[in-house]
Design a protein that fits this description.
about 140 residues, mainly alpha, 5 helices, about 75% helix, disordered C terminus
Length: about 140
C-alpha cells in the first residue's frame, strides 16, 4: 500500500505544483529533495538514538549537497539524487538501525522519491533546452 500511495502522492504534488506555478522556480524540486532527506532525522529523534541521528545527518548532508549542486547547476543532478534517495530508502534498514522509522515509511518514501524524480525528468525532457523553473526575470516572467 505504501508503494501505491507514495507514487500517487508524488504525481499529485507534481501536477499541483505545475498547475499553480510552484515549480516555475528551479528551487522547487531541490527543496523537495532536502525535505524528503530530512525525515530520517525526525525518526531518529523519535527513536531516541543519537548514533542513528549522526548517521542520518551524514546521509542527509550528501542529499543537501546534491540539491544545492542541482539548483546551482543542472537539475538532472536533482533527478539522480531523488531516485538515489529512493534507492537509499530501499536499503535503509540494512544500513542504519533507526528505531523511530515506521515500517511503512521506506516503501512509501522510496516510491515518492522515484515518482518525484520521474516527474522532474519528464519536465526536463519536455522542456527541450529550457529547464523548467528557469529563474524569473526582474518583472516576474520566466526567462
Amino acid at each position: 500500500m505504501g508503494y501505491g500511495i507514495g507514487s500517487l502522492l508524488s504525481l499529485v504534488v507534481s501536477v499541483f505544483a505545475r498547475l499553480v506555478g510552484l515549480d516555475r522556480d528551479r528551487a522547487f524540486y531541490p527543496t523537495v529533495l532536502i525535505v524528503v532527506a530530512s525525515y530520517y532525522q525526525l525518526f531518529a529523534l523519535m527513536g531516541g538514538t543519537t548514533h542513528a541521528l549522526l548517521i542520518e545527518l551524514s546521509v542527509m548532508a550528501v542529499f543537501v549537497a546534491a540539491a544545492v549542486a542541482g539548483f546551482k547547476g543542472n537539475l538532472w543532478v536533482v533527478v539522480a539524487a531523488l531516485v538515489g534517495h529512493g534507492v537509499f530508502d530501499f536499503f535503509h534498514a540494512g544500513i542504519v538501525t533507526n528505531a523511530g522509522v515506521p515500517a511503512w515509511w521506506p516503501p512509501f518514501c522510496m516510491s515518492y522519491d522515484v515518482g518525484a524524480g520521474g516527474c522532474l525528468a519528464w519536465l526536463l525532457l519536455r522542456a527541450k533546452g529550457k529547464a523548467p523553473g528557469d529563474r524569473p526575470q526582474a518583472d516576474g516572467r520566466a526567462s
